[in-house]
From TrEMBL:
PANTHER family: ANTI-SIGMA-F FACTOR RSBW (PTHR35526:SF3), ANTI-SIGMA-F FACTOR RSBW-RELATED (PTHR35526). Pfam families: HATPase_c_2. Keywords: Kinase, Serine/threonine-protein kinase, Transferase. InterPro entries: Anti-sigma-factor_SerPK, HATPase_C_sf, HATPase_dom. This is Histidine kinase/HSP90-like ATPase domain-containing protein. The keyword Kinase applies. Residues 27-125 form the Histidine kinase/HSP90-like ATPase domain. The keyword Magnesium does not apply.
């Protein structure tokens, strides 16, 4: 499955690809990402850094991203790309696999070592990286796994940045992003135009320019509507009871 269109990233969209489950997976990931970054008008250095990082991430998913034999259902690796404005304009590039319990760890290998250098490459050539429990975006049924992600900087004037997202549309898209991954939810609106996406144990308020929700009893989160996909990932992780570092720093 392929959902392309770099222009849609400026209105909370996401590019999603199902990667081949063989040795061609990393090359496919590089090609998809290069097309997306070029469509955003990013510089050659950022594009090359992104291709290097996604190649390593997709290779790790191919080598170590297989689920345990008892874990069903499962799905091929996936590549996701979306934009976020908080804490700064960035692209989030994620590779999903079904091995939720197999989290990456730093081996101490350097860039010149033959093996174990994948995370060192992410550390050196991106604006940050991490891993989080999540669910497939394209599988027909809810499939659990993890996503290893990295960040690439976006210029302040990147294409689509000035497009305003309609709050009603943002609320409906958020609901679809969450429910198609196996969670129940509803959406309602009041006379002021404020929407509420009601999910199991969590309500997300959608105002004219922001998503707002209580991530815990003491942590109130507020994100711009363009951060739709980032919000969806945080909500899915919250509902799924995932552990490990969150998508946002």
């Amino acid at each position: 499955m392929v959902v392309e269109g770099a222009a849609n990233l400026g209105v909370g969209g996401v590019c999603v690809w199902r990667l081949p489950s063989d040795e061609s997976g990393p090359a496919a990931a590089r090609a998809y990402l290069q097309r997306t970054l070029a469509g955003l008008g990013l510089g050659r250095d950022v594009i090359e850094d992104g291709k290097l990082a996604v190649s390593e991430t997709a290779t790790n998913a191919l080598r170590y991203g297989h689920p345990a034999p008892h874990d069903r259902p499962h799905a091929p690796p996936e590549l996701w790309v979306w934009a976020r404005m908080v804490p700064s304009p960035q692209l989030v590039v994620s590779v999903f696999d079904c091995a939720r319990t197999s989290m990456p760890y730093a081996s101490g290998a350097g860039l010149l070592d033959e093996r174990g250098k994948g995370l060192a490459i992410l550390e050196e050539f991106t604006a940050g990286w991490g891993c989080a429990a999540t669910r497939s975006r394209v599988a027909e049924r809810a499939v659990s796994g993890k996503a290893v992600w990295f960040l690439l900087p976006l210029p302040l004037a990147w294409p689509g940045r000035t497009v305003r997202v309609h709050p009603g549309t943002a609320a409906q898209c958020l609901l679809l992003c969450v429910t198609r991954r196996g969670f129940r939810g509803t959406r309602s609106s009041d006379e002021r135009g404020v929407s509420v996406v009601a999910l199991p144990g969590l309500n997300v308020w959608v105002h004219r320019r922001h998503f707002c929700w209580w991530a815990s009893a003491t942590r109130y989160v507020r994100r711009p509507l363009v951060d739709l996909q980032e919000t969806a990932e945080q909500v899915v992780r919250h509902l799924d009871g995932g552990t490990g570092p969150a998508f946002s720093p």
